[in-house]
Design brief:
Blueprint (H helix, E strand, L loop, with lengths): L2 E7 L4 H15 L3 E5 L4 H4 L4 E7 L11 H10 L7 E8 L9 H11 L3 E2 L4 E4 L6 H12 L4
Parallel strand pairs: 1-2, 1-3, 3-4, 4-5, 4-6
Helix pairs in contact: 1-5
């Protein structure tokens, strides 16, 4: 089965709950899944699939906890061609920067050679008060392909 790293970008902790539920679902299917609140390249390099579960902070920025990881990728410019990724972006559509933060990491992943394995999902907390349900449904549609 697949080794899956769930990379969490969170300001208030909500996306961490989503990632935890996703990890549970993946583990029940026999995958090795781990949640990283403070991801570092050396810790996640052995995972072949990265699922970015990330909100947006401020004016389209990444949450503080995942900014060091963003800077690490910019600095070291690793070869990520052996890594696939998926994105679960969580935001509030009342802001004009809805789900902009995760796009910054997606761009770096792609520039480093990684490819998205599935279309990303953007969950609007205005319409979806329990984002875990929507995220798990999205994961269910493609998890058998990993």
């Amino acid at each position: 089965m697949t080794k899956v790293a769930l990379l969490v970008g969170t300001t208030l902790g909500g996306t961490e709950y989503v990632a935890d539920d996703m990890a549970t679902q993946l583990t029940e299917l026999g995958h090795e899944a781990a949640v990283f609140i403070d991801p570092k390249l050396d810790e996640i390099s052995q995972f072949s699939l990265w699922i970015l579960v990330c909100s947006t902070h401020g004016a389209g920025d990444l949450p503080d906890n995942i900014q060091p990881f963003f800077k690490q990728i910019m600095l070291f410019q690793p070869d990520l061609s052996a890594v696939k990724f998926a994105t679960c972006a969580i935001g509030d559509s009342s802001y004009d920067t809805f789900c902009e933060g995760p796009k910054k990491l997606e761009k770096l992943f792609t520039q480093a050679g990684s490819k998205a394995c599935v279309d990303k999902i953007e969950i609007d907390v205005q319409d979806t008060p329990i984002p875990e349900e929507t995220a798990l449904s999205w994961l269910s549609t493609w998890q058998s392909q990993i």
